[in-house]
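Treating backbone geometry as a discrete language has practical consequences that deserve illustration. Part of our work consisted of pairing the sequence of a single chain with a tokenised description of its backbone. What the numbers capture is local backbone geometry rather than side-chain detail. For completeness, the protein is quoted in full, as a sequence line and a line of structure tokens:
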Amino acid sequence: MDHIAAAEERIVTERLRQKLNEVNTAAQTQLSGVQDHVNFTLQQAYFKCAYECFDRRRKYDEISNCVEHCSSPPLRAQNLVEGEMAKFQERLNRSLMVCQDRYEASKLQNKGGAINEMESCVDQSVQESIKTLHHVVVQLKASLSINETGSI
């Protein structure tokens, strides 16, 4: 690989990293209310419920079943969030792979402007993903019965 090609690769890699950071920041910002609900509201309810399970009149198995029952809502919620975010990540990855494939094809054909095409493709993929992220968060909030203030 010559110096120009190596420099182009570094530029592409850095620009891609910047765009991925943009998506990560958007995801953290938009998901903060959902994560807060799961990590605090549902976890708090779990601990209160589990505390009530510990009664000396109960057998160990009854206590264990009670605690397991209490843990169900936060576990379901966390699994839902993780599942939706895994699908979101998979869609983003596929979109970025298309950009990568186009870039590689342009390089093979010695087309000029391959880096600019790559950057444009990645930017479009990132912007579309961020728009989609908003809808994913709205859907998660509806599924978890989170109102705008973050409580149930």
Remarks:
- Residues 3-41+72-143 form one domain.
